[in-house]
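Sequence only, no structure available. Ideas?
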Amino acid sequence: MTDKSPPVEGVEPLGRTSVLGSVIERLEGLIFNGFEPGATLPSEGKLAEELGVSRLTVREATRTLEARGLLEIRQGRRPTVAAPNSALVGDFFQIAIRRDPRALLDLLDVRRALEVHIATLAAKRAGRGEIADMEMSIAAMRAAEDSEAFHTADVRFHENLAAASGNRLLVFLIEAFAEPLRESRLRSFAGHEARGGGIDDVIEQHQTILDAVKARDPKHAAQSMRSHLEQTEQDLRALLLDTGNEQAKDVEA
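Reply:
I predicted one. C-alpha cells follow.
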C-alpha cells in the first residue's frame, strides 16, 4: 500500500552513533510537536528512509515508545499517538505497595504534598458542577451497602476534588493513584475500625473538606484535608503495627 502521508518536516538522516536512541529522540519530538493524540505516524519504510536507518531500528524505537505510553501499536496498522495515560504512574505505585505495605506511608506523603494544595485550589476555583459531583460522591458514600461501594465513592470524591482544582496535571496524578488509593483506603479503614472508628466519621471528614470548598475558604479546606490525611496516617500505622505483631507471633509460634 502506498504511503500518502505528508513529508516529515525537520527530520534529518542520522549518523551511526547511538542510532536507536537518536531515532527514539526524533520520534518523541514528532509526537510532542507535530502530532495530536490519535494521529497516525508515517509508515516504517517512510520513517526509515527519511531518518536514514533500517526499518528494524524504526520498529524497535516505536516499541520503546509504546512501552512508555506514547504510542499505541496494533497488528497490521501503523502506530498511533496515544492520549495521555496515567496507568504507568499508577502501576509504579501499585507494585511498590504490593512489594512492601509500608510504602502506603510513602504514598500518603505524596498525597499530602498534592491534595492539601488541591483542596486550596478547589476552594478558589470549584464551579457548581464540580461541587455537585463531590456532593454526589459523599451521597454515594452514605448510601453504600458494602465496603467496595464505599471505598469507590471515597476515591471518586478525591478525583472530583482534583477536577475542581482546575489543574489538568493534578487531575492526571490523582487519577494515576486510583488503584493504589483504593488499596490504601481498604487498609486504612481496617486500621480505622481497629482504633474504634466507623464509616460516619470518615464521611464527616470528607464533608468538612467539601463545606470549606463551598464556603470559598482555602485555608480551612487545606487544614481539613491535612487533618483527614493525618487521621489516615494514624489508621495505616495502627494496621501496620497490628500486622507486624501478628507476624511476630507467627514467628514465635
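DSSP finds eleven helices and two strands in the chain.
Hope that gets you unstuck.
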